Amino acid sequence: MADIAADAILSNAEMAAADRATIDSGAFSGPALMENAGAAVAAAALARFAGAARVHVLCGPGNNGGDGYVAARILAERGVVVCVYALKPPRPDSDAEQAARRWAGAVETLDALVPHAGDLVIDALFGAGFSGGLPDPVKTALVRCRDAGCPVLAVDLPSGVNGDTGEGEDAVQCAATVTFYRKRPGHLLFPGRTLCGTIETVDIDVRAAEPPRTWQNGPALWTLPRHRADTHKYARGAVAVLSGPRHGTGAARLSAMGAQRSGPGAATILGHPDALDIHAAHITSIMLRPLGDDPLAALQALKGLGAVVLGPGLGDFALARRLAPAILIETEAMLVLDADAITAFADDPSPLFEAARTGGAERLVLTPHAGEFARLFPDIADGDGGKLAKARQAADRSGGIVLFKGADTVVAAPDGRAAINANATAALATAGSGDVLAGIIAGLAAQSMPAFEAACAAAWLHGEAGRRAGSHAIAEDIADALPAVFGEIGG
Ligand SMILES: NC(=O)C1=CN([C@@H]2O[C@H](COP(=O)(O)OP(=O)(O)OC[C@H]3O[C@@H](n4cnc5c(N)ncnc54)[C@H](OP(=O)(O)O)[C@@H]3O)[C@@H](O)[C@H]2O)[C@@H](O)CC1
Ligand SMILES: Nc1ncnc2c1ncn2[C@@H]1O[C@H](COP(=O)(O)OP(=O)(O)O)[C@@H](O)[C@H]1O
Ligand SMILES: [K+]
């Protein structure tokens, strides 16, 4: 079986399929995989919590509990004082039942659990097989762990966190989580990401059944454009940003600044003359052009146009409704649709989505935050499934790349590929930061980077720039940090 990239993310079902495929291939048995998993948990407990007075292992009825019994046995063999508690006995004839039989000590009910501050709790109640809400005895036990203030080490996932969505309102905050083979979406989506604490991903000899379609976003996922030594500014591609009115020009400037610093040869702001006067007082290397009576013609007149940013601070919904489909159908440029230009299509997105399909080959990138997402895709926003599934549904419907912003930004393509971004910090939660991001996407797309890759790379670079700029950065600082980030990763 071919192995998959280290940054691949598997859903609960994909992980279970990998487990089955590994067992069916004859390479490893279920009990052998469980032994590996439990041994990894025991090793993490010894390495991270060596001074624990006692280790309480809470076991559920499935294989997650099975891993717990294995870890308990190995820790006890190493001389650790271990107490085991079960919610229910393991499922009959399961690997977990075998593992439980090899645990020689007592098994108490969860209500016997009395953890103390110097103890360690190993949470092996539920993992990849969990859905719905936690049973009351589990909630009570987890509250006791929290109140005792002892660290919790989660097996695979903190119990109560849904591996596919990251949802998990009753889960306890864990100090660390040991997961197996590849991460689940719930390790990276909030609140799961926070609840996991430090995540350790260990190889337990599982091999994937299918090629992945979800990844943790990072440089392994895309290749940045490189400039040939003999290039010139038009060969490097050009970005156009549509400006808002005189009293709302800042957002377009921030997009243009993000675009410019992402490597294209030129960035131009187009707007009404009174808005351009304001821009002229602020900027030097960004070009300015009047929008005129025919905005499409003004765009088409730009040499080497590769991407257009439409929306930041735009204010003019009618212009967005007219221009977005025209850009997709009548130009070759990539369209990054953000902010007001997303809201402009809230009542009737079909002309946009039709144009995205007519324009072909992933020419549209939508960059909604949660509020804009709910305006454009109200039924998807209200529906079941987490942020990853919602972003995928939106991409499928729109025919464009959907970059669903937030602390756990998800980028999804109509063909099902998706990436979860995990390097961004709260430094980005500052006005105008999304405008810079839209510009970075356009800057990369103008250099012929495909839309999905451009959106993923932009989200990651934006996150790195935010880190570098520091927790009190403003949007301009995020843009200013970009050249150093590109320099560091060799772009
Ligand atoms: N994949 C791999 O390669 C490997 C995986 N391994 C391990 O297996 C784990 C997955 O095991 P799993 O599939 O048995 O699921 P698990 O998380 O134990 O939960 C299932 C049990 O919980 C129950 N249950 C669910 N929701 C509930 C609720 N709301 N309230 C109450 N009950 C609920 C559910 O009940 P049922 O739905 O069947 O009635 C069932 O009894 C994985 O996380 C990892 O630790 C390793 O051993 C080695 C290799
Ligand atoms: N807590 C956070 N951690 C990481 N990134 C964040 C956080 N909050 C916001 N962001 C990112 O900051 C940007 C904010 O964009 P947006 O909401 O459009 O703001 P604006 O319209 O002011 O530019 C998005 O890229 C979003 O993903
Ligand atoms: K668990």
Automatic annotation (TrEMBL):
Instruction: Give the residues the record marks as binding (6S)-NADPHX.
Output: 63-67, 127-133, 156, 251, 313, 369, 435
Q: Tell me how this protein assembles.
A: Homotetramer.
Is this entry keyworded Isomerase?
Answer: yes
Residues in YjeF N-terminal domain copies = 15-212
Q: What does the organism's lineage look like at the top?
A: Bacteria, Pseudomonadati, Pseudomonadota, Alphaproteobacteria, Hyphomicrobiales
| Start and end residues of each YjeF C-terminal domain | 214-489
Q: What's the protein here called?
A: Bifunctional NAD(P)H-hydrate repair enzyme
Which amino acids does the record list as binding K(+)?
Answer: N64, D123, S159
Q: What does this protein do?
A: Bifunctional enzyme that catalyzes the epimerization of the S- and R-forms of NAD(P)HX and the dehydration of the S-form of NAD(P)HX at the expense of ADP, which is converted to AMP. This allows the repair of both epimers of NAD(P)HX, a damaged form of NAD(P)H that is a result of enzymatic or heat-dependent hydration. Catalyzes the epimerization of the S- and R-forms of NAD(P)HX, a damaged form of NAD(P)H that is a result of enzymatic or heat-dependent hydration. This is a prerequisite for the S-specific NAD(P)H-hydrate dehydratase to allow the repair of both epimers of NAD(P)HX.
Q: Give the UniProt record's GO annotations in the biological process aspect.
A: metabolite repair; nicotinamide nucleotide metabolic process
A Gene Ontology molecular function term for this protein is: ADP-dependent NAD(P)H-hydrate dehydratase activity
Show the PROSITE patterns listed in the entry.
YJEF_C_2, YJEF_C_3, YJEF_N
**Superkingdom in the source lineage:** Bacteria
Note the PANTHER family from the entry: ATP-DEPENDENT (S)-NAD(P)H-HYDRATE DEHYDRATASE, ATP-DEPENDENT (S)-NAD(P)H-HYDRATE DEHYDRATASE FAMILY MEMBER
State whether keyword Repeat applies: no
Cofactor note, please? Binds 1 potassium ion per subunit.
Q: What reaction is this protein's catalytic activity?
A: (6S)-NADHX + ADP = AMP + phosphate + NADH + H(+); (6S)-NADPHX + ADP = AMP + phosphate + NADPH + H(+); (6R)-NADHX = (6S)-NADHX; (6R)-NADPHX = (6S)-NADPHX
Q: Any idea which positions bind AMP?
A: K405, G406, A407, D408, T409, G434
